[in-house]
């Protein structure tokens, strides 16, 4: 399974460009993980995984603690996880993950984003079969063989470890995120280009001209929605200049 780094870095740059939204989205996810389980990450694997990802994204301790304390305080604020599936220009596949306190508002905003940018929202399961739920890590240094050996010694299951131009990519099942990151940290790897739970396409498509322009606009509009946590797709994005 291959995954070009320009796609990963494009998404990372888009997140970095909207820093406040990244912080707010992680704050919401940490709050819900603590609210729906034990507020101690040592006793709540889901919360530990969210905190791991938040730290890699640069979320500071104050925001993490504030979200956990809000859950501890018994806040009645609640969010539902809703996944929308749809089609972009030329039949490209898009998955939109949301956390929302108003389902009617969210579905209306997501549907509008698709309709106004050359796509359409689909039914549940319309495109999910084209993706694999994956814990993804990308970083520099070491060899793929050394990383794989270290993960095996730590008794951590991974799907694959790839190396390309000095950059290592580790793929694992999503429930292995915390175990993989812990093992990598113990191997001295603490800086990541990417460390996230994602939906990787089993194959990709290329768009050009007007279709590509519409697709990039669709991504921007969806990413800008307050209720949207992540957007996954199967389009090969252009190299960033």
From TrEMBL:
The family line of this record is: Belongs to the TACO1 family.
* Alphabetized Gene3D superfamilies for the sequence: 1.10.10.200, 3.30.70.980
One GO cellular-component annotation of the UniProt record comes to: cytosol
- Where's the TACO1/YebC-like N-terminal domain? 3-74
Which Pfam families is this protein grouped with? TACO1_YebC_N, Transcrip_reg
Q: Where is the TACO1/YebC-like second and third domain?
A: 80-235
- Domain of life according to the entry: Bacteria
List the GO molecular function terms: DNA binding
**Entry keyword annotation includes DNA-binding:** yes
> Taking the first listed entry, what is the main subcellular location of this protein, grouped into a coarse class?
cytoplasm
Instruction: Please list the GO biological process terms of this entry.
Output: regulation of DNA-templated transcription
Protein name in UniProt: Probable transcriptional regulatory protein J0J69_08765
Subcellular localization(s) per the UniProt record: Cytoplasm
Question: Keyword set for this entry?
Answer: Cytoplasm, DNA-binding, Transcription, Transcription regulation
């Amino acid at each position: 399974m291959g995954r070009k780094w320009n796609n990963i870095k494009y998404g990372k740059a888009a997140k970095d460009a909207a820093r406040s939204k990244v912080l707010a989205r992680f704050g919401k996810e940490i709050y819900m993980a603590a609210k729906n389980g034990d507020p101690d990450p040592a006793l709540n694997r889901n919360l530990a995984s969210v905190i791991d990802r938040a730290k890699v994204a640069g979320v500071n301790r104050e925001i993490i603690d504030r979200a956990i304390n809000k859950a501890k305080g018994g806040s009645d604020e609640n969010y539902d996880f809703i996944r929308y599936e749809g089609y972009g220009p030329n039949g490209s596949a898009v998955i939109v993950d949301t956390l929302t306190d108003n389902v009617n508002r969210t579905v209306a905003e997501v549907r509008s984003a698709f309709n106004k940018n050359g796509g359409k929202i689909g039914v549940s399961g319309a495109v999910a079969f084209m993706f694999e739920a994956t814990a993804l890590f990308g970083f520099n240094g070491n060899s793929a063989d050394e990383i794989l050996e270290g993960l095996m010694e730590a008794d951590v299951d991974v799907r694959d470890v790839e190396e390309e131009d000095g950059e290592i990519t580790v793929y694992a099942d999503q429930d292995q995120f915390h175990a993989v990151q812990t093992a990598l940290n113990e191997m001295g790897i603490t800086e990541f280009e990417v460390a996230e739970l994602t939906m990787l396409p089993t194959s990709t498509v290329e768009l050009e001209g007007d279709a590509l322009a519409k697709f990039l606009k669709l991504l921007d509009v969806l990413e800008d929605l307050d209720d949207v946590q992540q957007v996954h797709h199967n389009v090969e994005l252009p190299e960033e200049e």
